Amino acid sequence: MADVIGERWRGKWAIVTGASAGIGKAIVEELASAGTPLVLVARRAQRLNAIAESLSNADGVQAEACPADLAEPDAPRQIFEFTQQRGLRIDLLVNNAGLNRYSEFHAIDLAAQLAMVQVHCHAVLHLTHLFWTGMVERRSGDILIVSSVSAFPPGPYTATYAATKGFDLLLAEGLAEEVARYGVRASALCPGATESEMYESTGAPKADTKEFQSAKEVARRGREGLAMGKHCVIPAGPRGLTATPIACCRERRSAELSSIPTGRLI
What we know:
Rossmann fold; globular
């Protein structure tokens, strides 16, 4: 199975946002080790260049650094033009960039909340549309949108974050249903508590990180799920603490929706 998954993107260009740390960095390392040339996107240019150089030296793949801040509305267009100018055909897009803040809704700076909407919703939609069109025309390509288990239950103290991740989940699942006939795949990766810099910067209460999943494991499961054609991937935590309650929440909502007459507008 590992060999089949590795071969899916060998020699094909992938673009990963939020590639300088956490799950994004783990994803580019997974892809590079399987022979996938990469375009790395993140805000921190110096760190991004260092990662690109490291991947090229360690795995012998071509890695291009494309510094960009997805909180800026025109960033997706600039990223797309970066690939067009270099004649790169992107066969895998990973929308991973993200940010979060933990506090009461009124206490979180409005600019930070609007940035979440920009990065998680506007930029994801914009980038996906830019690269999706070519994939559909070629009848080949894959898109992974990193959502969160926060997309399923209500999210007190992270209400805006959870809402934007719900957008990501539904976008990925809707697209997956819509374009399967074109040979294109889309999947939502919904990790739970993960070892990453982002968690440390949210302001959330201290937690027992022994229960956290490693970014490497999340990246592996996301890549496997997308290659297998899963529309949604929920990685289980070290002791199965994530997948079970979220699966129950999903089943409950599916049961509630099944009671709505077909064709009814909500």
